[in-house]
Give the backbone structure.
Amino acid sequence: MLNQLTRTHRISILLATAAVVVAVPLAGCGSSGNGSSSSSQASTTAPSTSTTAAVASNSSCGSSTASAAGASEAASTATGDIPDNQNFLTFKNPSGGYSISYPEGWARSGNGNDVTFRNMGNTITIKVAPGPQPTPASVAAELKTEAASDPCLTPGTPQATTVGPNQVVKVTYSTQGQKSPLTGQRPKISVDRYVYSKGGKVATVDLATPVGVDNVDAYRMISESFRWS
């Protein structure tokens, strides 16, 4: 009878030990499963965040016109209109080899082959470089290159035309300006590009103004005033 009780006691101990041994791996599997689930969740969350950032980046172009603040800023840019009684001066650039009219009072920066005039969001940029006579195809290719570094640039269709005494290639394209410190919006900019050439030199003149500002007549006069010296 004693022996039978001893064997029964030993069997109970063995069964209890086995239960503990089995429980440990099962607990480990549960922990591993939870870790796997967390890892899987993290891996699906990361691309979602990346995608959201990419969408936000792409949608930044043109966002200035999608809100009341953007509309307000577009209205305020009307103060950038060049008045009908504006006085114009002639800028002569001997090193660049040209002359051009510009509105009196506009700030000038740069020199030589790269000159810019600025006033109230409007800019006139003149860049001179050696090169062959431009064609609509070559101007389109240049804009395509610029668009690679400016995702907001939307080019138009270049056309050969006559401006003043010059045969030029003209194209209108749009982009966005710097963020306004007042509204936090980036104003849409319209740019008339005129490409002049003579004797192996090419002058690219960009006349830029915020959308909503009417400088058509003044900019036409400026483009017609360009002369090679």
